[in-house]
Amino acid sequence: MFPWFVHLECLNMAAVKLSKDIARVFVNSFDTVLFDCDGVLWAGSKVLYRAVETVNYLKDSGKQIFYVTNNSTKTRAQYLEKLMKLGFNADEKEIATSGYLVASYLESINFQQTVYLIGSKGFAEELRNHGIKHTQIGPDTMATDMPTYVNGQIELESEIGAVVIGFDEHLSYPKILKAANYLANPNCLFLASNADETFPMEIPLVVPGTGVMVKAVETASQRTAKVFGKPSVAMFEAISKQCKINPQRTLMIGDRCNTDISFGKNCQLTTLLVLSGVTSLKHLEQYKHDEQHILMPDFYTDVLGDILDLLEQ
What we know:
It is built from 13 helices and 16 strands. By secondary structure, the chain is of the alpha/beta class. Helix 5 runs parallel beside helix 6 and helix 8 crosses helix 9 (210-221). It is elongated. The chain starts with 7 loop residues before the first helix and ends with a helix.
């Protein structure tokens, strides 16, 4: 945190826009930088303006760099492959995904039963990498009407000890029904990679995210999932176990206020919002009006590459 910077919520002020006047002091005030990925580094298949150059510059300048993503559809190894292919100077130990956190948690408690997984190939692979058994992924459709299905065609496994939810493009009524019935057992764990409402896309289309799937199962089961992704502090705790991090000299950069910025606030980090993803200036104005301080970033800018542009001016 800047020595001259007072928390904005105390002053009831709007977020500060980055400018060339403060850019150098701003960058020098941090030893560690956490980056969200979707909407910050890229949107869909498109790398965002000067994102690669900015991240590599900060790392070459001696900053600790971490990539923190709520996306559970890829393993850490797959994220590393993507980052390196795009030109980011990354290492697998710098990557924290929500799927990795869930798998690590189950391994840490010596989970021996089977996971009922609503999720992707990447999430399934991350579980297997940690020695966690899981049910088959992919489509699970209902070939008949609902009364016929529930009165004889539904098959529930006996060894399920946890229901785990990530993004699943094959979410279906049978999956929600099975998850809710497994969760009728109070000893069955209920875990979720994240609760993001939507995915940031390079086209103006609303694409429902994992949060929609989590809410469906929560509603049916009348239970609440333990969420591992941002804004939960679990992500920061996992990173802090790897190396020494001073929260007061750590910057969180994200595009979504209810996950990235709230995460930063929950962990006592300085926050920078980039307007290249989910959150817009209109949203910030509404958060200020409603005094939703946990959603207000300390700083904002249009795109990540602005940092390098401002430093070069």
